[in-house]
Amino acid sequence: MIIGRVTRDALHQDWTELADGCWVRRYAEWDVNVGVVAGDDGLLVIDTRGTADQGRALRDDVRRLDPRPVRWVANTHQHFDHTFGNVAFDDAAIHAHEHAAAGLQQAADRARELCRVDDADSPLNRAVIDTPLRHPDVTFSSVAALDLGGRLVEMFYPGRGHTDGDIVLRVPDLDVVFAGDLLEESAPPSFGPDSYPLDWPETLELVVGVIGEHSVVVPGHGVPVDQAFARGQRADIGLVAATITGLAQSGVPVGDALRQGEWPWDAELLHDAVRRGYAQLAPSQRGLPIID
Ligand SMILES: [Zn+2]
Questions:
Q1: Cα 40 to ligand 1 centre (Å)
Q2: How far apart are alpha carbons 18 and 8 in whole angstroms?
Q3: Tens of pLDDT along 118-167?
Q4: In angstroms, what is the span from residue 250 Cα to ligand 1's centroid?
């Protein structure tokens, strides 16, 4: 499997209660986090794992955790490892940003293609290829709230970054923030072919603005983090954007940028970041496609 993270051993196979009525579980496949928030009227599930079968297993895990019905699902963004389990939540309303809903098909096509190129016969790849899409039912453009009964969950769109459709969820009474892949703990942030490296720092400025001194912050992958971690990662992502901008402005060709820049992470992880950043800075001069 070449998409995202290598499957890790089953270290994290149980729910962690972050606060009263709020849990996270870290699944070994792609090391992805799933959140659950409980209200008087039911449960909200945040992200649904990467295949139909994983979604069904998640549904069973949630049922064992809390017998209340799952009435809401939120997708933090359109990538398959966060959305392909949607199909297992027939009775829930699925919420996402309007760009994530619009981009789900393209993200799914890309994930399936990568699985085919990697090894279409591996069971996990086959499961990704064969999973039918379940699209979001409700979308929003800037902010929205879910009333779970006695508990509100705020959802907001801080701007483009990891994709053009990443949202952040905040549970104000518990001081828990779900940041999706705008923040990652177990690997460097993922700059893919649908990322916006130059916008990401400002986007994270808004995210950091809702993270308090005692907030628990759940990244898309890895263990929960705090304000200091979020600020640090925002600084690193800012450094990537500034480096791309500086190299482009001083005339370094895109093909030399990775070698000439000083990066906070392995330069091999930043091919798309550099390509996307250069295209965004000077599309016409460099003969590169314009990124909207
Ligand atoms: Zn992602």
A1: 31
A2: 23
A3: 998 999 999 999 999 999 999 999 999 999 999 999 999 999 999 999 99
A4: 31
Residue range 24-80, pLDDT digits in tens: 999 999 999 999 999 999 999 999 999 999 999 999 999 999 999 999 999 999 999
For residue 162, report the distance from its CA to the centre of ligand 1, in Å: 7
| Ligand 1 centroid distance, CA of 172 (Å) | 24
Those residues with Cβ within 8 angstroms of residue 65's Cβ, 6 or more apart along the chain or in another chain? 15, 23, 36
CA–centroid distance, 181 to ligand 1, in Å, is: 5
d(CA 96, CA 104): 10
- Report the separation in Å between the CA atom of 64 and the middle of ligand 1, taken as the mean of its atom positions: 27
181/162 Cα distance (integer angstroms): 6
> What is the CA(83)–ligand 1 centre distance, in A?
10
Note every long-range contact of 226-231, with CB atoms under 8 Å and residues 24 or more positions apart, other chains counting. 229/183, 229/185, 230/179, 230/183, 230/204
- Which SS3 state, helix, strand or coil, does residue 138 take? strand
Instruction: Return phi, psi of residue 24, to 5°.
Output: -135, 150
> What's the CA-to-centroid distance between 19 and ligand 1, angstroms?
25
Residue 201 alpha carbon to ligand 1 centre in Å: 16
71 neighbors 36 (Cβ within 8 angstroms): no
Q: Which two tokens stand for residue 231?
A: 């600020």
pLDDT score of 288: 53
Distance CA 53, CA 56 (A): 5
Q: How many residues does the chain have?
A: 292
Rounded to the nearest angstrom, the distance between the alpha carbon of 161 and the centre of ligand 1 is: 10
